Amino acid sequence: MRNIYLILIFSSLSSFLFGQTKKAFLEAADKAYEEKNYYAALRYYDEALEFNREDTSVLFKSAEAARQFNSYKIAAQRYQYLLDTMQYQGSPELKFHLAQMLQKMGKYQEAQSYYNLYLSEFGEEDSKLTAIAKKELEAVDWAKNQEIKTEELYTLSKVEGVNTPYSDFGALKIGDTLYYTSMQFENEKDKDFPRPKISKVLKSNFDNPDNQVLDVEWNKLNISSAHTAFSGDGKTMYYTLCDYNSKSTLRCDIYSCAQNGDTWVNSKKLEFNQDSVTNTHPAIGLDPVMGKDALYFVSDREGGKGGLDIYYVILDKNMGFSEPINFSEVNTSADDVTPFYHQPSNTLYFSSNGRMGYGSFDIYKVDLKSLNHVELLDAPINSSYDDLYFTANNELSQYLFSSNREGSQFVDSYYEACCFDIYKADVNDLEINLTALTFDNSNGEPLDGVRVKVYDKNTGVLLFDSYLDDSNEHKFKLQRGKEYTIVAEKDHYLPDTINLSTKDIYKSEDIVKKLYLNLEDVMLDVFTFDNDTKNPLEGVTVTLEEIGNPENKVVLINPTANDFNFVIEKGKQYKLLAVKPDYFPVTETIDTRDMKEGGRIRKDLYLDRYALEKFLPVTLYFDNDIPDNRSKSTSTNRSYSELLDLYVRKKQEFKDVFCVPLNNVETQKACDELETFFEGDVKGGYDMLRIFMDVLFKELAAGRTIELSIRGYASPRAETKYNLVLGQRRVNTIRNEMMQYKNGLLADYLKTGQLTVTDISYGEELAPSDVVSDLNNKRLSIYSPEASKQRKVEIVKIVKN
After folding, report:
1. Which of 80, 403, 472, 779 satisfies CB 3.0 to 4.6 Å to 438 for a cystine?
2. d(CA 156, CA 777)
3. Domains of the chain from N-terminus onward
4. For the segment 224-246, what is each residue's pLDDT rounded down to a tens digit?
5. Beta strand 522-530 pairing with 599-607
6. 154-178 in b/e burial notation, b at 16+ Cβ within 10 A?
7. Prediction pTM value
8. What confidence tens digit (pLDDT) does each residue in 537-585 have?
């Protein structure tokens, strides 16, 4: 970077050119080279070559001066000639520098060949050059595979009316005014002839250039002034003044001045400058750690990472400037320069020749919330030449930067070297439309009611938040050159995340991304159908109840469709009941105890339309020796419903007696069986009886005469004769239930004989042989599910006239 600036200043010669000897030209050339006046050195070497064009030593020196003067083409031609003719073996660096020149001109394939040649022949001789060669070899391999795809993205041109044959740089647009620095001026008091060029700060109307040297005292000094920056309120200007502390060493300091109407006053040197080093390229922004007001600048002071490093100082109205802090996260072992802070995006732009890029200085950016991610800007913003002094407007719709790329003006058209012109890139509007579609991964169906969030992947900042209750299509407008993280979330589901980059998008594009959410909980999807037609059955009421926890109950009614959705837990059992007027209820058990992960369960329920015959058998269960224990009578005054309530209350007693003696696995299985018996068979049987009596009433009201045959059973604990009588009493509880049902709804029909109940009890005669009858073994003869299921009555037959 320092060589570049010196080139801009020493691009002049004296009248020494005329009438001198070869020796005099060589002495002048060597002296100019030592003073880093590479333009003069190149011209003097070329004059010396006029005496003998085959002098390879002078030819090599001229190539070196051309390289230092950024006359890439001349340097490459002369290095190539020396290699092709094999006339000069004086420097192993020749192939290395030829590769550099080819790389800077964008001839990446040729550069790659010469870097490889250098490494194969001289890779062990100079560790520093070898390290650079390896890095640049990687860079050219990357760069040669890059395609410029940004024609639709940028409109690139030179800023009209401001560029000169000398270097113009440091452009900053404030409103309609362009501030910039130009190297077209001379130090009028310098005794050397011709005088070296110096820079001044100018301002101009951006659209109608009227270039004016900024009319302030510090800009009238016979030293270089450059690099303007402004405070956030525009009331303070920062700039640099640069002078020589020797013939070949330029150093700068940073100053500030305050606005006073149309002029700037109170110029002062800032206290963080160091006298022995350069301090340049000021930029105002926020510091990357605490987000406080900060001034970024560039310096080669001790404690840096390499050549020129970026530093910052924190600004405090009361305390002044903090001690300089090396911005180590972005600095490299090479030169890192020309910082620019873009306030709306909290992004620092800078140039570096120490990172992977297109060659020479390239422009990079880093989001100050994600310092580990430094990003290279695209071509054609970057080129194989030097690209520096990037600035942008708030909207990032226009960029300004300086470059010495092909097309820039030359201070010397023969050598095609120097200088920097100011370019602008207008960023064309691209429409990048993202449609994020959400799906249930368990069935592939579109999933509504999902919240989709879009984050900046590098900073974690939430950019968009979309919730759609009745759609799975979430639409977003994205920006080019970004990396996004898209997260889809929904209750009872595990989120799905995808990453999306728009860095390789160079024209308007519609993007569709699909997100599939896996269930975290268990989703129970219930569908109801008419069992006769198999058509969907609407208007059903579905009740879900946790077995063993009746308070955990959900009742859903769907009057217009046949689907029901429940969220249930893993490791539990549930009873599912579907009811609809004029249809038989349907009961199912849902068991999630073996489920380790979320998932989806589908249950289709088929309901039969009511018909008395379809109820059969209607089964009702009784407690041991109930009703009227130890009675010898065949009749009873008890109704089934009052006995049922007492029986259900004993569920826990049955579990305690029957299950406890078993081991853990058997205990759980036995308790589950009893739970299902009480909740499904006992309670469900009575539910069925009530519906049966409703339908029965409708048939009787229509004039039908109906005879019901009811069979009573008992477990085989007592004598056969007693069990027969017990079965008859149990049948009578059903007759009594019908007499009392709904305030005697069926009583008149029983009294008139239009409804008759016939007892065909069997006692224990039909009990399976493996049902325990031992009176001393109450656990098995009373409390076991097998014995319990024998204590019942069944309506088994219907005769209608």
Report:
1. 472
2. 99
3. 2-143 (1.25.40.10), 154-427 (2.120.10.30), 432-509 (2.60.40.1120), 522-609 (2.60.40.1120), 613-800 (no CATH)
4. 999 999 999 999 999 999 987 66
5. parallel
6. bebebbeebbebbbbbbbbbeeeeb
7. 0.64
8. 999 999 999 998 989 999 999 999 999 999 999 999 999 999 998 898 8
